[in-house]
Design brief:
Structural class: alpha+beta
Number of helices: 12
CATH architecture of the largest domain: Roll
Strand content: 15-25%
Low-confidence stretches: none
Mean pLDDT: 91
CATH class of the largest domain: Mainly Beta
Helix content: 25-40%
Order of helices and strands: EEEHEEEEHHEEEEEHHHHHEEEHEHEHH
Number of domains: 2
Number of strands: 17
CATH topology of the largest domain: PUA domain-like
């Protein structure tokens, strides 16, 4: 293997699964190029939900979850810093009941999460989940980790939830499932062989999986971030979401103070811990477009931490620079953090300065705005236009 981070198509059958290693697809131009079917025989060569073994016979040995990241309506998301993974099930279009899917993925999720919460006997019957994503173009896949259903941060009522979606005026349900990426750097070929033969906790079983089965204790793979400076592209919305952002910009571009109210409402909409946000009156603007309280601690005894918010309704192609961020930073008081909300992006130099100097400033750029809108059900231009017209009318 010429590159230690890439496994060639020919080497797939004997390869271990190493976190963040790429596994090459074939070059024949047909379904046989799929690397997962060659890497894990029996899981098939299509779909995002692939089980080895039949659920109808209660004989699922392992499950592959593959996410391409290309479906904005179903934003599967891995948080590498906390080891949390959110996955949406396989009922992604109207016309079927929640569990009535061709691959029976949602039915399997229901079974697995039920067993997760029924003690050791139940967990012993849960198959390991192997997460892969799409690292670029072509059929290559990247291994992202070994998943255990659930999380020690969530209750049994929160880790598998049926959510409603609307497409073309038709309502339907799908699952939103929460998993934990376990602290396992590699899955050995020996354990894969044991799993294939039905030995979930055999001699080659990784310690964190065995501990989860025996005790229910999660040992997440935590990867604390270095300094995060998102690229311009990472701050811009996905192509399918750009019409939402442009609609917001066009609605507010001549009314910056109304955009300040929209940004304040966005904070409340996106973060339930936000208790209040008060927008500064136009003729008394002291440099902060709004101030608010973010609640920490238990509901019975919360502590309010104040934040200052500045909103910039810029063209998505016009970045926010050092001058604007310096203005916000200069007005932060002791025990206060800042929030910058913009329909654009933060320029690299400004981003670098606030991160490397350790300024407590949160950046909500174009992609963050569209993500919050979508999670709030404002996921079409029709719904968003109606919302803007009703709540922020032209004067």
């Amino acid at each position: 293997m010429g590159d230690a981070q890439v496994v060639s198509f020919a080497e797939l059958p004997g390869a271990d699964l190493v976190v963040d290693r790429v596994y090459k697809g074939g070059s024949s131009g047909n379904a046989g190029d799929d690397p997962l079917a060659r890497l894990l025989p029996g899981v098939g060569n299509q779909g995002g939900f692939r089980a080895l073994g039949r659920h109808s016979q209660d004989a699922v040995r392992l499950v592959v979850l593959y996410t391409s990241g290309a479906e904005p309506d179903w934003p599967d998301a891995l948080d590498p810093y906390t080891g949390a993974f959110t996955y949406f099930g396989d009922n992604r279009s109207p016309g079927r009941a929640l569990h009535d899917t061709p691959r029976k993925g949602n039915l399997l999720l229901d079974t697995v999460f039920t067993r997760t919460h029924t003690g050791r006997d139940g967990r012993e019957r849960v198959p390991p989940f192997l997460l892969f994503d799409k690292p670029g173009t072509g059929r290559d896949v990247r291994f992202r980790g070994l998943l255990a259903p659930g999380s020690d941060r969530l209750s049994g009522e929160e880790d598998l939830v049926a959510v409603w979606r609307t497409t073309g005026g038709h309502r339907f349900q799908n699952y939103q499932a929460r998993f934990t990426v376990l602290n396992v750097a590699s899955v050995s070929r020996a354990w894969i062989s044991e799993l294939t033969s039905g030995q979930t906790t055999g001699m080659s079983c990784p310690g964190p999986w065995r501990a989860w089965v025996e005790t229910g204790r999660y040992t997440p793979l935590l990867a604390p971030p270095t300094v995060i400076i998102r690229s311009r592209e990472a701050q811009h919305p996905l192509a399918a979401d750009k019409p939402l952002l442009y609609l917001v910009y066009e609605h507010f571009k001549e009314r910056p103070h109304d955009f300040e109210q929209f940004a304040a409402d966005l904070m409340r909409r996106g973060y339930p811990e936000v208790d209040r946000v008060d927008v500064t009156r136009p003729w008394r603007d002291g440099g902060r477009d709004a101030t608010g309280d973010y609640l920490l601690g238990p509901d019975t005894d919360p502590v309010a931490v104040e934040f200052a918010l500045e909103a910039k309704c810029y063209s998505p192609d016009h970045g926010v620079g050092v001058r604007e961020t310096s203005r916000l930073i200069s007005r932060l008081r002791h025990r206060q953090f800042g929030v910058l909300v913009t329909t654009s992006h933060l320029d690299s130099q400004a981003y670098k300065e606030i991160r490397e100097d350790g300024h407590p400033v949160i950046v909500l750029a174009g992609r963050d705005i569209t993500d919050i809108l979508k999670k709030s059900g404002l996921d079409t231009t029709t719904a968003l236009r109606r919302h803007l017209h009703d709540n922020y009318p032209q004067r």
